[in-house]
Amino acid sequence: MRARVENHVKSCQKCLYTNDYTKMVAPLTPYKTEYPLQIVACDLIDVGLSTQGNRYILSIIDLFTKYGIGVPIPDKKGETVLKAFIERWAIGEGRVPEVLLTDQGREFCNEHFQKFAELVQMKHITTKGYDSRANGCVERFNKTLMHTIKKQNAVAAEWDDQVPFAVYAYNSVVHKTTGDSPMFLMYGRDAKGGLEKIGDDACGVSYVDMDEYKNLLVQELNKAYAFVKEHARQEQQEYKVLFDAKHRISQKSYPQPGARVLVEIPSEKMGARYPKLTNKWKGPYRVISCTENSATIVPVAGSNQETLKIPFDNLRNIPQQMDNTPVTTKKGRARLRNTVVAEITEKLVTDHDHDICIFSELYWCRCQRPCLFAIPGQKDLRLQSPTQVVRAVQLLQKNKEMTRADVMMLAQKRLPMLSEIPTPEAWHILSQCPTLSLWVKDIISWKEAFELQYAMTLEKWLGPELLQTMSSMVFCFPGVELKSVALALKHVKLLKDEDTVVERIRKNLETREVNVAVFVIPFSTSEQSKDSWQEAIHALPKEIDIIVVFSHISQFDHAKGEIFTQLVKELYRLDGKLTVLGPDFTVKFNLNRTLLNVSDRSNCLKYWEDLMRIVKEEKIIWPHLKLATLESAETNQSAATEATGASGSGFGPIRAHNSRGSRSGSYGLGSYSKFRHNR
């Protein structure tokens, strides 16, 4: 009885994310630097609005010399932060770092910082999110800076007047970690102050010439740097020992690859109506690899296979007794955003011999005599600028009674309510230009939009077969009968022996180039079968996408169906794309039934028709997907039998399943997939 109660409690999700737990504090891992400006860290301090209009302090510190500065700024826009960093540190003071370390705030992770980093060949790295300890040096500098300002400041609204004095005091004092002052280590001289200008020291040191000064300076700095590295190493090691002992690192059990964990969402309670009753844990996730202080995880179930790198401090182990029922939150984990670097300019295109310039305005095409584009429905309206044509078409669609003069006036500049990407009507007008394919790359995002429009037009009039550049191969695992697979593909391989599954798959993939491998698995409740499926998934290279589906099933034990569903949900892939259309997949167009329920209620052909529709609606890339027909069924079975050495009855006769009859044909699902969002 006691064991049953313990197992029940350990399998309770609410108990897991509500009860207290021992936090997994990761071991301390100091950054190792060898010379000045190797790593520079940045952060923002929200102090409050001052009388001069400043609210934030941009704090910057060099991790080797510990030399830091604070720059008062009015806001934390990307342009403002980058301007302060350039003028007060990188370019204005000649201190361009090799590596810039920041958090994941938008003020640092944006296209402006990314473009500047490319220009000066600076590597920009960020913390993993909600992990201030990963940027501990600048956080400690922030604390010292604010303590100094707070002690000296008499009027709170005038705090920005005290920032230069606080920075001067910090850089003038010997730092405990380096054993010397940040000012000396950065510039080779100590800060000059009024207290030092007394007696013999007031006259300074005289040198014979500049060469002697440079030689002595280099020698002294080299000695100082060697001393700093050794002193810093000892200090870091001492602090690491104290930190690890304080948090009992040696006694903690951290997640290992294969373990299931929950991820903490710290922002979940912010703004919640009942923060004390709000769950801040999300999962479950599967750990696929670990470092010294973080883990790389992927969702255990679901179509979203996004990889996250999370510090151990924000993870929590899941007991073995708990199932994989999703634990959801309203908010998600903060992560890096994909930024597009684009140089937006407003200038004429004067050089057509180079394709490296990108503009937001294009005033003529590349023809020897620039084309004049006629706008339909406007007899006297002819425009030479392609970008103005796009705006004019959208303006006339919104108001057909607009006069020619008004259209030409409003088309001169960007309008927030208009899209800068041409509509299909605009593409038809611009297609009159013979050099269209050459100059679309001169405008931001037009090249991708043109290729998409071209692919759609080609598919509309010439069919999707011309765009099918990918290939697929279907593997039927042991236990799957050909009569339960209503596919008319040539490359259908029937695998008979579980012991040789991986070997046969690899051998078949060597015979031809394959982009997508489809695994058709049988209805099974055996862990051995699941291990065979998982081994085959891991055996394929990451360049090949994998789709897992199950064969047609009917009249099965529903208790065993739950076990089968759980086995399929546990399938995962460490590297590469994996799409699992499992038994618990919700079929929205079929009364939100599960795919297993749809299979039970349908015959074989109707099940595969529904599966084909799911592939199309979910935009899953399955090239040359085609259902079997009455004419191709016998040919398909014969080809598969010859390729695999299988014998049997094969795919039986196919009959119309209702008044609509059976459907057959091919969907161009791989046509222009690189322009579409694929799950």
Please provide a brief summary of the model:
This protein is α/β, with parallel strands linked by helices and 679 residues long. The protein has helices at residues 2-10, 13-18, 78-90, 111-119, 136-152, 163-172, 182-187, 210-246, 386-398, 404-410, 424-430, 436-439, 446-462, 501-511, 527-539, 558-569, 595-601, 604-617, 632-644; strands spanning 39-46, 56-62, 68-73, 99-102, 123-126, 260-264, 281-290, 294-299, 308-311, 315-317, 373-374, 382-383, 472-476, 492-494, 516-521, 545-550, 578-580, 586-587, 593-594.
Protein traits:
nucleotidyltransferase; 13% strand; 19 helices; 679 residues; Nucleotidyltransferase, domain 5; disordered C terminus; Integrase_cat-core; SH3 type barrels; DNA binding; alpha/beta; 5-stranded mixed beta sheet; hydrolase; nucleotidyltransferase activity; 5-stranded antiparallel beta sheet
Set down the secondary structure blueprint:
Elements: H1 2-10, H2 13-18, E1 39-46, E2 56-62, E3 68-73, H3 78-90, E4 99-102, H4 111-119, E5 123-126, H5 136-152, H6 163-172, H7 182-187, H8 210-246, E6 260-264, E7 281-290, E8 294-299, E9 308-311, E10 315-317, E11 373-374, E12 382-383, H9 386-398, H10 404-410, H11 424-430, H12 436-439, H13 446-462, E13 472-476, E14 492-494, H14 501-511, E15 516-521, H15 527-539, E16 545-550, H16 558-569, E17 578-580, E18 586-587, E19 593-594, H17 595-601, H18 604-617, H19 632-644
Parallel strand pairs: 1-4, 4-5, 13-14, 13-15, 15-16, 16-17
Antiparallel strand pairs: 1-2, 2-3, 6-7, 6-10, 7-8, 8-9, 11-12, 18-19
Helix pairs in contact: 5-6, 9-11, 14-15
GO molecular function: DNA binding; endonuclease activity; hydrolase activity; metal ion binding; nucleotidyltransferase activity
Region (Disordered): 638-665
GO biological process, one term: DNA integration
